Amino acid sequence: MGVFNKFSFIFLVIFLSLSANAEVQRHRFVIQATKVKRLCKTHNTITVNGMFPGPTLEMKNGDTLEVQVVNKARYNVTIHWHGVRQMRTGWADGPEFVTQCPIRPGGSYTYRFTVQGQEGTLWWHAHSSWLRATVYGALIIRPREGKSYPFPKPKRETPILLGEWWDANPIDVVREATRTGAAPNVSDAYTINAQPGDLYKCSSKETTVVSVDSGETNLLRVINAALNQPLFFKVANHKLTVVGADASYTKPFTTSVLMLGPGQTTDVLIRGDQPPSRYYMAARAYQSAQNAPFDNTTTTAILEYKSASCAAKKCNAPTPIMPSLPAYNDTNTVTAFSQSFRSREKAEVPTDIDESLFFTIGLGLNNCPPNFRKRRCQGPNGTRFTASMNNVSFVLPRNFSLLQAHQQGIPGVFTTDFPANPPLKFDYTGNVSRSLFQPVPGTKLYKLKYGSRVQIVLQDTSIVTPENHPIHLHGYDFYIIAEGFGNFDPKRDTSKFNLVDPPMRNTVGVPVNGWAVIRFVADNPGVWILHCHLDVHINWGLAMAFLVDNGVGELQTIQPPPPDLPIC
């Protein structure tokens, strides 16, 4: 057997052993209006299969997921598989006008992709307008057949989806804000598994209950599916042991409180080690933007010891014990929590950097266009809200998706001149001149060679207001090698880089008035959007996209588009 044949044979054996137990999981998602009653009022809510939250999808590392999405609603829709790497399957990623045109009412599209090397909790959600307010669900990836978790097997597992509810049609809310240029109305409730809980009107009958037995250890898969709000999460009198985040295992650490930005997931073990009773799980806002209105309500679910349940006692169950949540603006708690994350194993962090990028992220204000009436400029001092990265406010195309335009060489849809650095250096977190508040609109991409090693400094600005921004990169996981406050200074801050065991995430909370540094290898060809996961900010343009070139040969080349890819 020649050397080549020998290696081919070994590769084949490895490939066959990996794919031996891989399965194809098939599902059908019907997007439809469903009557949903919350806060005493019934709405025609857009759901998947009439379920709210949508179905939990379960698969193993190595499995393929095939989901036919049928749109029976009156809005365009796409589905994004948040955190799935989508190696060479960019057409299945889902962001509207980035990797596909939307599925029109009456249309359908089948998403097909394989999950490789990821285990833990991800989720799926609509990626079109504000539909993800109600179109979302958990995506659970278990270890391969015969493999186990790197922590003691929990007795039971429960997805905990934190959401946000408007006592209105969310699409109307965002359309009104787009019309007026003002910030959209804040939500009326937060939810746990789509239920607001005992502290809201007309809600306590349906409050989510999570069972636990004395002495057992359970796994909570916590997902922040809220549209616009980072959230604190706590369980009264119980400690939580973090074991994973964004489908990557972490070194275990114990905490009494979690903070998740929208898009983030955190896997925690919880022990039934308290006196049998009923305990509230509660979530409420972490609000880092000063003077900005926000929903200051608290959602609750109940952790109920089986021996304390009414079924066991035939009784009036005791009132659950309430946890004390951090203050809304408790940035110190957020910092301590986010700096506790470490990768479980030594990380393969890219070191010789090919692309060193510096992106400012933040809000802005556009002056009222001369042809607009006053009622269309209801932002501060008669302006319209906007947002940008490196002073470019991202504009999505309307007639083609970016990936389609790239693949087919369609001119005039985008340019590849997104700036690697801010066009102007200034005191990013200081008192910024009003002349820097108005960004330039554009559909600018940044080109990356296949295999290039990338570092991005994400720098918050104090334009309009500083804020903690959850920044999500499609198609990739990345290492968060450092974060801090003030303006990033390479001379001072490079010494803080953790190149040994930094956490791997798909969404990073860039600290309010601060910065975060991420690294990844551009090994997945396609067009991948980097955006703030506060949906209000995406609408305003807080995004950019990478165009990653194909490498050499089939395994480094994006697959051709599927035949049923929607056209615009």
TrEMBL record:
<dbReference type="Pfam" id="PF07731">
    <property type="entry name" value="Cu-oxidase_2"/>
</dbReference>
<dbReference type="InterPro" id="IPR011706">
    <property type="entry name" value="Cu-oxidase_C"/>
</dbReference>
<keyword id="KW-0732">Signal</keyword>
<keyword id="KW-0964">Secreted</keyword>
<protein>
    <recommendedName>
        <fullName>Laccase</fullName>
        <ecNumber>1.10.3.2</ecNumber>
    </recommendedName>
</protein>
<keyword id="KW-0186">Copper</keyword>
<dbReference type="InterPro" id="IPR002355">
    <property type="entry name" value="Cu_oxidase_Cu_BS"/>
</dbReference>
<feature type="domain" description="Plastocyanin-like">
    <location>
        <begin position="31"/>
        <end position="145"/>
    </location>
</feature>
<keyword id="KW-0052">Apoplast</keyword>
<comment type="function">
    <text>Lignin degradation and detoxification of lignin-derived products.</text>
</comment>
<dbReference type="InterPro" id="IPR034285">
    <property type="entry name" value="CuRO_2_LCC"/>
</dbReference>
<feature type="signal peptide">
    <location>
        <begin position="1"/>
        <end position="22"/>
    </location>
</feature>
<feature type="domain" description="Plastocyanin-like">
    <location>
        <begin position="417"/>
        <end position="550"/>
    </location>
</feature>
<dbReference type="InterPro" id="IPR045087">
    <property type="entry name" value="Cu-oxidase_fam"/>
</dbReference>
<comment type="similarity">
    <text>Belongs to the multicopper oxidase family.</text>
</comment>
<dbReference type="InterPro" id="IPR034289">
    <property type="entry name" value="CuRO_3_LCC"/>
</dbReference>
<dbReference type="InterPro" id="IPR034288">
    <property type="entry name" value="CuRO_1_LCC"/>
</dbReference>
<dbReference type="InterPro" id="IPR017761">
    <property type="entry name" value="Laccase"/>
</dbReference>
<dbReference type="GO" id="GO:0052716">
    <property type="term" value="F:hydroquinone:oxygen oxidoreductase activity"/>
</dbReference>
<dbReference type="InterPro" id="IPR033138">
    <property type="entry name" value="Cu_oxidase_CS"/>
</dbReference>
<feature type="domain" description="Plastocyanin-like">
    <location>
        <begin position="157"/>
        <end position="307"/>
    </location>
</feature>
<dbReference type="GO" id="GO:0005507">
    <property type="term" value="F:copper ion binding"/>
</dbReference>
<dbReference type="InterPro" id="IPR008972">
    <property type="entry name" value="Cupredoxin"/>
</dbReference>
<dbReference type="GO" id="GO:0048046">
    <property type="term" value="C:apoplast"/>
</dbReference>
<dbReference type="InterPro" id="IPR001117">
    <property type="entry name" value="Cu-oxidase_2nd"/>
</dbReference>
<dbReference type="Pfam" id="PF00394">
    <property type="entry name" value="Cu-oxidase"/>
</dbReference>
<dbReference type="InterPro" id="IPR011707">
    <property type="entry name" value="Cu-oxidase-like_N"/>
</dbReference>
<keyword id="KW-0479">Metal-binding</keyword>
<dbReference type="Pfam" id="PF07732">
    <property type="entry name" value="Cu-oxidase_3"/>
</dbReference>
<dbReference type="GO" id="GO:0046274">
    <property type="term" value="P:lignin catabolic process"/>
</dbReference>
<keyword id="KW-0560">Oxidoreductase</keyword>
<keyword id="KW-0677">Repeat</keyword>
<keyword id="KW-0439">Lignin degradation</keyword>
<keyword id="KW-0325">Glycoprotein</keyword>
